[in-house]
Amino acid sequence: MKIKPVDFLVIIAYLILVTVIGIILKKQAQKSKNDYMLGGRSMPFWMLGISNASGMFDISGTVWMVSIMFIYGVKSIWLPWLWPVFNQIFMMVYLSIWLRRSNVSTGAEWMLTRFGNKKDALPSHKTIIAFALLSCLGFMAYGFIGLGKFIEIFIPWRFVQPYLPFAIAPEYAAHFYGVIFTLFTVFYSLLGGMKSIVWADMIHYAIMVFVSVVIAIIAMTALYNARSLPVPIGWNNILFGKELGLDWSAHIPEVNEKIRANGFSPFGYFFALMTAKGILASLAGPVPSYDMQKILSAKSPREAALMSMIVNVVLLPTRYLLIIGVTILGLLFYKDLNISIADKTDFERILPAVLNTYIPPGLLGLVLVGLMGAFMGTFAGTFNAAQAYLVNDIYLKSFNPKANNKQISTMNYLLGLAVVTISILLGFLAKDVNTILQWIVSALFGGYIASNVLKWHWWRFNSSGFFWGMFSGIICALAAPYIFPGTVPLFYFPIILLISTIGAVAGSLLTPATDFDTLKNFYKTVRPWGFWGPVTAVVQAEDPLFVPNRNFGWDMFNVLVGIAAQTSITALPVFLVLLMPTQTAIAAIILAVSILILWKTWYQKLPDN
């Protein structure tokens, strides 16, 4: 067991610190519903942005990203487009502004501003609540599993079991570790609400910056001494063709088996589908989880956009310094790593195996704190979002609309405990990190896209259309793995999209339109572009001075420039640590030019507070 007493002390100190944060901020959180759920909308955009980025720096995602960097090399930079990572650019350019203008507390409450509060508008409200809770629970279970697998490598179960007064089967050791750290997370986030989550995120993000830089330096030194990496031709090339063209036979033959199992070939076709799906998912806006809650917590629409900008700036360079650093060490010392389970190579064990083998005591404790803190931030943010939907959109809307602050606080605590209990139970049912990632991102969210693109951009889209689009899409997404067994979910995404779009359009056209008063209020408040002609005509007839949003062209231009900036800010630290000066310089130039363009075409045109 590599972990030493000094590492335990670092971990314990961090857990005490976040617990104290929750206790200190408890009184502020109890002032009102908005203070608990949204931090009173008093926090600056840069704090919210760092917190949001910190929540995205989760263990499970980082474990997966290290494994794909190891396997696919620099080309793996494109694979997070599956999520898609560039949705933060769409949020930065215009969607965060639109969302924050609504001035609501949750995504479900937003539905009432778009479709109204009448009986025929309620299906969309109930649907988004159900979807939000299911997605929150799914992500919480996903983080829970990643944490357990991560800790188990550093603290083998055989060292812990003798000190426990009860017996636990070894296959549930990861779950036991996950529960322990989950309880600390629940404590500080339950007491202090959004502000305690943001402050805790700030602390562990600072730790991760330090850790990532140190690991990158260690990797650069090792690579400089080794002169080269044992990788196939094309591994360090960010460009690709129809096929990947990576042959690991002369280096690590089992990697070829993993590439075949992943099914990402032909890569050109896979990339085209991934990009198309990513654009549509980005147009749909944020899912109803912690990202949306951070946007709604911003002081103003302008600060919401700046918050999304900060996410890109602080998340990607730091995360990829760690990813490429660990990958280099994993490649150089692969033969010394034990990443096999039952004679099967598990590339998701590269990250913890490298840290356990090559990071010195003391620094290892700091690494563990940073990565466990990332899990805690992801879990806490998602936990806070689930509480918000349960309290704001179910308890206050349906059971006790006149509840006082004490009653609201009590329900926050009770429902929060219920949420975390269910998420832990879900964690026991999941098989591995990648299975859950694929299921949530590529399948279930495929059913989410059509309805949520249309809700922003088409005036005739109504609550019934939203319900039937979501329902048909999700049913199709859940059935597709059984209809197309062994197929990468992305490859049957077009079928899910087609069926959900038909359901959304038919559901809208076969039922009455949303009442015009609701549409006018939404249109004047949010000011979206898209197919809003009839509503625009009515609004301008009533107010000739009203100017509709004609920024579609500029917004799409800024999105393209933003994606170029995001890709270059991701590639820059990778090429830097790989000691590739020419590619590093090219990435830096693209980034600098993109920043100058965005300064002129985006930043200077942001709305005033």
UniProtKB/TrEMBL annotation:
The keyword Metal-binding is assigned to this record: no
Domain of life of the source: Bacteria
Keyword annotations from UniProtKB, A to Z: Cell membrane, Ion transport, Membrane, Sodium, Sodium transport, Symport, Transmembrane, Transmembrane helix, Transport
Matching Pfam families: SSF
Record has Membrane as a keyword: yes
Alphabetized Gene3D superfamilies for the sequence: Sodium/glucose cotransporter (1.20.1730.10)
An annotated GO BP: proline transport
PANTHER family for the chain: SODIUM/PROLINE SYMPORTER-RELATED, SODIUM_PROLINE SYMPORTER
The family this protein is said to belong to: Belongs to the sodium:solute symporter (SSF) (TC 2.A.21) family.
Name recorded for this polypeptide: Na+/proline symporter
